[in-house]
Amino acid sequence: MALRALIVDDNAQFLEAARALLERQGMRIVAVASTGDDARRRLDETQPDLMLVDIDLGEESGLDLVRSIVHGERLDPPHVILISAYPEDDIVDLLDACPAVGFLSKSSLSAAAIEAMLPGEAVP
Questions:
Q1: E strand or H helix at 83, and its extent?
Q2: Contact assessment for residue 73 and residue 89, using Cβ atoms and an 8 Å cutoff
Q3: Does residue 118 contact residue 50 with C-beta atoms inside 8 Å?
């Protein structure tokens, strides 16, 4: 079974490009969202294995969204990987303080890179 993912980014063009790329590589994108509220709704509706969350959601912080999901009331939250156009070196302090399983630059996004970050049992 393919890994089921929710992508959260405020850039509609990136959402569609990432969806197309990851689906071609065998992932199942169950939903996309552009705001924190939309992401929470989609999470409840689709119960993905994984969320890819942009660090900067315009007026919102993707880091705050990740914290609320990982440390929230969900019994089995999905794995979360942060994504960003920023280089990792520029945001390393933010990443260290976040409960995400990892970080990928948008230019390095691929199903293989995502699967390499997840614990073995997370990849169906």
A1: strand 79-84
A2: no
A3: yes
Confidence tier at 96 by pLDDT (50, 70, 90): low
Q: Which two tokens stand for residue 118?
A: 């997840």
Domains and CATH numbers, the chain: 4-109 (3.40.50.2300)
Q: What is the pLDDT of residues 6-59, one digit of tens each?
A: 999 999 999 999 999 999 999 999 999 999 999 999 999 999 999 999 998 988
**CA–CA distances in Å: residue 63 to residues 52, 80, 116:** 11, 10, 21
Residues 82, 49, 35, 60: is their CA dihedral positive or negative?
A: negative
| Residue 85 in tokens | 């156009």
Sequence length of the chain is 124
Residue 46 contacts residue 30 (beta carbons within 8 Å): yes
Quote the pTM value. Answer: 0.88
